[in-house]
Amino acid sequence: METSAEAGIIEKKQDLSNWVPHYTLAITLIGLGILVISLANPPKDLAGLFLLAGLAALSELSNVELFHSSHSNVSVSMIVAIASILVLGPFGAILVQLVSGATSEAKMILAQRSRLPQKRASWWRRSTFNVGMLVV
Question: pTM of this prediction?
Answer without folding.
Answer: 0.68
